[in-house]
Inverse folding.
């Protein structure tokens, strides 16, 4: 998956998140539609994803987001999606220590 393809999946899920309810648990019809949507965004490096691939990619993207969000909220360190963690030379050792325990 390229960043553009991942962004297309995130955009699709974001635009249709109400179909998953509060827990964002989507039924098979959602994923069938996602596959159709994703087919138009794939660059041609291999086949477009199937339902399993879309669900799996979404799960990994959501897990990564949840991990970053948890670190930012629990540690008191800042993380802004548009700017990243803003790690400076002064704060690099703090982040390195945090990574060791995660």
């Amino acid at each position: 998956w390229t960043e553009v393809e991942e962004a297309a999946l995130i955009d699709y899920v974001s635009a249709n998140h109400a179909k998953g309810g509060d827990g964002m648990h989507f039924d098979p019809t959602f994923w069938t539609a996602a596959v159709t949507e994703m087919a138009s965004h794939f660059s041609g490096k291999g086949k477009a994803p199937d339902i399993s691939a879309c669900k799996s990619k979404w799960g990994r993207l959501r897990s990564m987001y949840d991990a970053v969000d948890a670190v930012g909220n629990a540690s008191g360190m800042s993380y802004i999606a548009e700017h990243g963690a803003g790690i400076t030379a002064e704060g690099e050792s703090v982040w390195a220590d945090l990574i060791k325990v995660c």
Observations:
- Residues 77 and 91 are 9 Å apart (CA to CA).
- The radius of gyration is 17 Å.
